[in-house]
């Protein structure tokens, strides 16, 4: 048997760790293999890199939002000090017939323009999902209007196309349709505005195309063997499989439709349309705030729009339980 000799006063090493220091829950050091916590210098570096975004959020987003909430309860004309009026702006808003007209025009635009735009995007995406010659070119060509559709120049060109005796008017006359230019007609100008937003279907088209690529081909093959036609395959395979993507597009495009301003303002030649035909909500908000200098009233309109969009978003999220199908374990 081997004996270990130690000098007087020396202590034997403890089992399970090196001499003089213990690791683990009972020791003075961190457990073996534990990740190192970032020190103060690392935290400071992270906050320094985030400081531009934090400053921008506080001074350009959060600060103006809080101030506009205060202004919504005041009478403010951009020149004199705000004067507290309580709920007077909201009372005047509900009693204003032009405000009700803006709500009606915006609601019509959202309910008509958004579904037509998404239907066009899905139809083109299904065509582009098939392998064809020049597929990349067609994808880029259909996506290009989304890059320039919201620009001022595109809206000016659109106004020129739908004016009296312009390209659209002359084309209608070839087919015997005498309705004149759409821009000057209170009943037709809103359709020109809807046509402009439908023309910008490139962004949702790309999202639909990505969703269609994820649908297994085996499902279509099995359904075709069982005798299912195109429409049956579309409603029972395509739509359920891309329903999360469809929900995402519906949500984004609905919110975007509520915020339409530039195209409506420019197409109507900065008049919000003949007889307020294109008086969308944001156009009337701009008119009240920067033309009539009723910034308190405009702030109240802005916050009411925020609440309305929030409620519509909440309804969409509530309804997704009935028609959106996620994979097992998804939410």
TrEMBL record:
Main localization (coarse): membrane
InterPro entries: ABC_transporter_permease, MetI-like, MetI-like_sf
Membrane topology: Multi-pass membrane protein
Biased composition (Gly residues): 17-30
GO biological process: transmembrane transport
Keyword Signal listed: no
Domain ABC transmembrane type-1: 103-316
Positions of the UniProt region annotated as Disordered: 1-37
Annotated Gene Ontology cellular component terms: plasma membrane
Family: Belongs to the binding-protein-dependent transport system permease family.
The protein's name: Sugar ABC transporter permease
Species whose genome carries this gene: Streptomyces nitrosporeus
